[in-house]
Every structure is written in structure tokens, then in C-alpha cells.
């Protein structure tokens, strides 16, 4: 199907599509971007974000991409180190980002299944619409 963003995945589920690939994860990785999800939190606040790890603001940030994420990348590496890897085009950088993004993408599908079984896909779409970083056009991966 090609790289569908999270909102497009929900829209596809609404019309009966039930098989997706991981090209979105790979597209995010190619542009040095990590997917952040926070479905467990209650109340207002952004539940999903896209973060560009090549940004200079992460240069000295020794915290993981997500404090609460149990993936291998978040348990072992900081944003500063990941930024260094992607900016020096080390293969390990894209591998670690892909691992995190895949973990978060699967976490999104867990949440999607719960919302689908509770007949709350419209609520999920509203939550995704509230996530401002998801509305930025994804740059094309380098060729």
C-alpha cells in the first residue's frame, strides 16, 4: 500500500482494510525521524509526535527518545548519540531508529485494535488531528 501515515491507516481500517506494511516506519527512518506515541496517558495532551533527530537541539540531550519506551533503542541510547549517528550517516543510527519506530508503530496498532473494538475510531482520528507534528509533509527519503 505504500507509506500511510497514522491517520490514513485509521481511515483505511474504517473502510475495511486490514493488512498493512511497514513502509511508513522505513520512510520515517530515512528522514531521521522518530515516532513518539503516548496512548497510556489520560487527559489532554499530544499523544503522538514526530521528532527529527538530526535537529541541533538534541546535541547534548542524554535522555532516551522516550523515557517510558521499553524498546532496545530507548533502553540503551540517548537522543544525542542517535543524533550523532544519523548526522554522520552511520548505519547503526538508522538501524536503531527503525527498531524504535517499528516498536512504536506496533504499539499504535495495539491501540488501534482497542479503539476499533470499542467503536471509537472517530475519537482516535480526532486525537491524531490534534497532533500538530503529524500535519507536516514528510520529506521524501534520499534516493
Question: How many β-strand stretches?
Answer: 2
Cα radius of gyration in angstroms:
15 Å
Overall outline = elongated
Percent of sequence in beta strands: 5-15%
Strand neighbour order, sheet with most strands:
1-2
What does this protein structure show overall?
- The chain is mainly alpha-helical and 143 residues long.
- Helix content is 47%, strand content 7%.
- It contains six helices and two strands, in the order ααββαααα.
- The chain has a two-stranded antiparallel sheet.
- The longest helix has 27 residues, at 91-117.
- The protein is elongated and about 45 Å long.
List key phrases describing it:
143 residues; mainly alpha; two-stranded antiparallel sheet; 2 strands
At a glance:
This protein is mainly alpha-helical. The chain contains six helices and two strands.
Fold blueprint:
Blueprint: H1 6-14, H2 23-30, E1 33-37, E2 48-52, H3 72-76, H4 79-87, H5 91-117, H6 121-129
Antiparallel strand pairs: 1-2
Helix pairs in contact: 1-6, 2-5, 4-5
